[in-house]
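User: quick one, fold this
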Amino acid sequence: MYTVAQEQRALASLMLFEHALLEEERDLRASLGLGGNDIAVLRLVTDAEAEGHLLTPSDIARTLGTSSAATTAIVDRLASAGHLTRSPNPNDRRSVVLTPTMSADSPARAALDGSRRRRETMVETLSPAEREALAAALTQLAATLTAGQRRDVTS
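Assistant:
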């Protein structure tokens, strides 16, 4: 049976989660001296590497909703700082793929890997049913927030 207390607890938990994400992002920006989009790109690049996927600047632009020019500026900045490199795309010679070049002991790699490990560790503690429920709830939340933001902007 649904109760108001359950709704309040769920909303409070969402706010707590959002606050933790913002705090982690703020700490990463401060400790690494990078902007929010720079960190988002490094996350995408390191996640793609960990999952064995190729990532192009077009993928980043699509994911972040940034223009091609803005994405190029971010990638240029991160490449100049030694955080990533461009290589020819083996599947499409017209494009490049991005790979992280941070050493294993670099502060950026340690921070990003630590963040990923904490998430993985938390998910590993869940039962298969809880993992499915979490995935479904977060997917629905993301879709709801994205649709709501688009509607608010165009209103």
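User: anything notable?
Assistant: The mean pLDDT is 90.
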